[in-house]
Amino acid sequence: MANIKFIKEDKLVFAVDGANLRLKAMENGIDLYTFWGKMTNCGGYGQCGTCLVEITEGMENTNPRTEAEERKLKRKPATYRLACQTIVQGDICVHTKPQ
Description:
With 99 residues, the protein is of the alpha+beta class. The protein has helices spanning 21-27, 35-40, 67-72, and strands spanning 2-6, 11-15, 19-20, 52-57, 80-82, 87-88, 92-96.
């Protein structure tokens, strides 16, 4: 079992190990998208880069960056992830809309 702490929202979400971060956020009413992202998101396929989050704690409890993330986030800090590509494997803290 993993605890996902959404910092801005001050919300703790519980997930099974192997859960997708974007799906868990959406299931729990966490808004990942800016206004533009709401209109242009790709639906979780790692193509648009609009579900950007920062993992502030527990990066070791996520999967490595995917190829899609490497392309989209090459100029971003290593702590930035696409929620749709992030698999949660333990406790993490997440900062939504980090820009």
